[in-house]
Amino acid sequence: MATGAESGRRLRVGLLGTGGVASKYAALYGEYPRSLLVALHDPFDPGAGELAARFGGRVAASVEDLIASDIDAVVISTPNPLHLAQASAALKAGRHVLLQKPMTVTLAQAEELERVAEDSGKVLALYMNSLDNPVFRDLRRMITEGVLGKVGSINCKLANGMGHVWRNRPANFWRGSRAAVGGGSFAMLACHYLNLAQWLLDQPIIRTTAIGTNLMCDHIEGDDLMSAIVEFAGGELGVIEAAWCVKGEQMSLHGSAGSFAYIDNSVVTMKADSPFIGEAIRYETPGTRVVLDGLLAPAMSDWTNPYNQHRCFVDAMLDGTPVPMPAGKGVQDMRVLDAAYRSSAGAVHVAVHVAIHVADDGAVAEAVA
Ligand SMILES: NC(=O)c1ccc[n+]([C@@H]2O[C@H](COP(=O)([O-])OP(=O)(O)OC[C@H]3O[C@@H](n4cnc5c(N)ncnc54)[C@H](O)[C@@H]3O)[C@@H](O)[C@H]2O)c1
């Protein structure tokens, strides 16, 4: 039987949620030559019809109607509390699912969703847009090839200041609810970097101690500022921080033979003992600190980027290859979020109980704790 790649078949996709960040995805599924936008559903987005008119597909009347469409996969970009029910319904109906972070609002929900996916025999993948970025691909290769020596620590901060913008939102604005978000700024923002940090080091986080607070945004229930110290299975330490009340993004990684920092999604500064030639980063002057500017993260809708995570999902489904971010990694992220929030609430160190380590290809590899 011909594979998708051989037959030229296109993955038939439905979008659940089109109004927020997903408005950037319709173009990709409509324009990528290996996918077809078949249906869209968003009960509150007046723009769904326009997206359908521009990029294809019909506007489905309900979640059930969308899932019952002639589609292979559903891309879910709805508020966090809807993820478990919507993803479960799609999987049980025989659809593959690409789901936004955080996977669910609680660890128990994430574990339940993973079981539903296993029982369905369909693929549940997590969408992590950091992996679109060739800078992080280069950094992972740098680590693997020992350009920075033995890595000892990683520091990540994602802060967007959006809490102030939300001051005049209605009381039922879902990001203002601790229960709907699954915490606060840390659940929504730090999950990007704790996922990336574990991917870069290829190690699960096994222990954390955290402090969360609401410093400036009392119109929001959850934390608007939170920091977690984390320990990886290999012994490396890290600090992961998130904030809705202040601004700025940066990630730095420190090894025995060099250091690397990526600031505000555009500037890299690094110094190492050996050269490195990557796709985005050229480092040809060992022993010298360089500043490389203009390394902007690629647009989320750019299907010509071979690392675009929507494109990679489509390719994996058609070619029968592993997805970049299998559900098991999303569950691990939820374990860390859960442990960090318990630590913050109890001001104690809390172990992350990792029963298994999920390898990049989704295989259960080994017990790590
Ligand atoms: N990967 C990223 O870069 C990124 C960025 C932002 C948000 N997110 C994640 O994406 C998800 C959505 O976030 P957002 O910022 O787009 O939120 P949003 O509130 O801006 O948009 C959510 C959309 O879902 C729609 N919706 C609500 N109920 C629905 C239902 N029953 N069926 C279908 N659609 C429904 C809403 O009408 C709205 O258009 C969240 O899980 C969030 O964490 C990811």
From TrEMBL:
Q: Where is the Gfo/Idh/MocA-like oxidoreductase N-terminal domain?
A: 11-125
What UniProt keywords are attached to this protein's entry? Oxidoreductase
Molecular-function annotations in GO? nucleotide binding; oxidoreductase activity
- Species whose genome carries this gene: Chelatococcus asaccharovorans
Domain GFO/IDH/MocA-like oxidoreductase, by residue range, is 136-260
Source lineage? Bacteria, Pseudomonadati, Pseudomonadota, Alphaproteobacteria, Hyphomicrobiales
**Protein name in UniProt:** Putative dehydrogenase
